[in-house]
Amino acid sequence: MEWLILIGRILWTMIFFGAGMGHLTQTDAMAGYAASKKVPSPRLTVQVTGVLLVGSSLMIALGVFADLGFLIQGLWALVVAFWMHDFWKVEDPQAKICLLYTSPSP
């Protein structure tokens, strides 16, 4: 049963590890989007969140302070959901439909 938990941790971390690597390799594009959402110091914020996501993913996958890694990812997901993906604030009905049914491109 332990191997099943290990596989689950690795599969879970692949999502956040990929997002973190995206933050680190596509910093300029993501910083532009962050700036449009009025994130303070967007470039630095994107880089820091990239390091947090990669680091927390490694913590979870390796089982080293995995609880802390899950906490970091959970807090990050809450902040991102309400700050960066706030589709309910969009007033144009056509744009709102596009936001609901399409995923943003990096």
Summed up:
With 106 residues, the chain is an all-alpha fold. It contains 5 helices and no strands. It has helices at residues 2-25, 27-36, 42-62, 66-83, 93-101.
Mean pLDDT, to the nearest integer, reads 87
Low-confidence spans: none
- Give the radius of gyration: 16 Å
Range of helix content? over 70%
Termini separation (Å)?
37 Å
The helix-and-strand class reads mainly alpha
The profile of the biggest β sheet is: none
| Spatial shape | globular
Can you walk me through this structure?
The protein has 106 residues and is mostly helical. The chain is built from 5 helices and no strands. The protein has helices at residues 2-25, 27-36, 42-62, 66-83, 93-101. Helix 1 runs antiparallel to helix 3, helix 2 (27-36) packs across helix 3 (42-62) and helix 3 runs antiparallel to helix 4 (66-83).
Topology, please?
Layout lengths: L1 H24 L1 H10 L5 H21 L3 H18 L9 H9 L5
Helix pairs in contact: 1-3, 2-3, 3-4
Keywords:
5 helices; 77% helix; mainly alpha
